Amino acid sequence: MKKVFGAILFVLTVMSGLSAWTWRNYTKVVNDYMKNPSEETTETLLEMYNSIVSIPQEKFIGPGVFADFGYFLAIEGNKEDAVKMFEKEIQLFPESEVFVGKLIEEVTGEPYVMKHAISEPEVHPGLEFLPHSEPVSPETLELKGNLMSGDDDEN
User: Fold this and answer.
1) CB–CB of 52/24 below 8 Å?
2) Which of these, 1, 32, 2, lies nearest to 13 by C-alpha position?
3) pTM above 0.85, yes or no
4) Measuring CA to CA, which residue among 40, 90, 56 is closest to residue 70?
5) What b/e string do you get for 96-126 counting C-beta neighbours within 10 Å, with b at 16 or more?
6) Is 53:66 a contact under the CB 8 Å cutoff?
7) pLDDT single digits (tens) 62-102
8) How far apart are CA 127 and CA 27, in angstroms?
9) Cα gap 96→5, rounded to integer Å
10) CB 54 within 8 A of CB 5
11) Which DSSP letter does residue 151 get?
């Protein structure tokens, strides 16, 4: 179970843009924790997350950081604070709601109800999709099959 959580934590870390988080030793601290999950690296990681999430709202915190912290809290057994971090991620980055909602379901064991509407993707001029064609009849499929296999009814 810890390996699964570790793998997901790693994926979330990568998604959060490691190169953007070299300040505050984000990359080093997460890598140290992943390589050697000890009490010391766990405490260092927790301190680093707390320092990042305490940054004022007007400063940019990249996507995935709150979800990453939430998953770390869930692994540590702090489900209530984990859900708060997941909700903060969704508040700042609504496009993450589908994925982070699944994390909330995993932690709480209850279905997550989407709060943000998912709109249809915008179709740009020139990229319109062709209308659906008519269904292919069984006779047409049989004919194509015979042509492909080299069978000939005339022999």
Assistant:
1) yes
2) 32
3) no
4) 90
5) bbeebbebbeebeeeebeeeeeeeeeeeeee
6) yes
7) 788 899 999 999 998 999 999 999 999 999 889 899 999 99
8) 40
9) 19
10) no
11) -
Kind and range of the H or E run holding 54: none
Helix boundaries (H) for 16-137? 26-35, 39-53, 65-75, 79-92, 97-108
């766990």: which residue's tokens?
Answer: 42
CA angle 96, 54, 27 (to 5 degrees): 65
d(CA 15, CA 67): 10
Token pair in block for residue 99? 């994925």
Decide: 87 and 103 in contact? Cβ < 8 Å. Answer: no
User: For 124-139, how does the pLDDT look when each residue is reduced to its tens digit (9 = 90+)?
Assistant: 555 455 455 555 566 6
Question: Of 48, 40, 39, nearest to 18 (Cα)?
Answer: 48
Using alpha carbons, list the distances in angstroms from residue 31 to 4, 45, 68, 126.
16, 10, 13, 45
Residue type, 3: K
